[in-house]
Design a protein that fits this description.
Length: 202
């Protein structure tokens, strides 16, 4: 858990663009000093926390992810395909033909939201799977897109344009809550970059 002192530091960093430099220079997002920020070692533990928040208050929390997996059509029986897979963790994306239900319907509590659906909504808590389509290269000290890890067909695979797009994607996903943000990083170098800006987070 993060201390109040660390949260105040986090708020200052977030508002000035220091935390981390995903936030576009022209559009900073405030991070309330009272907000809970947690980094998880695996997505299953993070999802368990989301379920706990939803047990406390229905539809108060959602899980989202970068577009690092294909988005399949439903099976013939109507069930959703578990496209989002990380080790033993498997979950479906939001339902393609009823994506608008993800934010408000009970079914959305067990579906992974995309940025295209999550933008415009706010929850008490948001969980973000920070994919390996955007990584922080510590040798170059810059953000880099990894096109082969992106399944977003809406974006051309020009690296510079894709990098800017993905920075915006994660800025949006990380700013969908007003009580708490939970994050799992697929790329451990990127996680290390976050932690280096927030040394109090364990």
């Amino acid at each position: 858990m993060i201390t109040n002192e660390a949260l105040e530091k986090l708020s200052r960093q977030y508002q000035t663009g220091i935390f981390p430099n995903i936030i576009r220079e022209t559009e900073l997002t405030e991070f309330d000093a009272k907000m809970e920020f947690r980094i998880f070692n695996n997505p299953s533990s993070m999802m368990n926390e989301v379920r706990e928040r939803n047990r406390e208050k229905r539809n108060s929390a959602r899980i989202t992810a970068g577009f690092c997996w294909p988005w399949s059509d439903p099976n013939q029986d109507g069930s959703l395909v578990n496209d989002v897979k990380i080790g033993d963790f498997e979950m479906p994306w939001e339902q393609k033909d009823q994506f608008w239900k993800w934010a408000t319907d009970d079914s959305g509590m067990e579906q992974v939201g995309t940025v295209y659906t999550a933008q415009g909504f706010e929850f008490d808590y948001i969980a973000v799977i920070f994919g390996n389509d955007l990584v922080f290269d510590q040798t170059k000290n810059e953000w880099c897109a990894v096109p082969q890890n992106s399944s977003d067909t809406q974006v051309k695979r020009n690296n510079q344009a894709l990098t800017q797009h993905l920075r915006n994607v994660y800025r949006v996903l990380l700013s969908r809550a007003h009580k708490g943000v939970y994050v799992y990083f697929m790329d451990k170098g990127t996680e290390s970059y976050f932690r280096s800006h927030l040394p109090e987070i364990k």
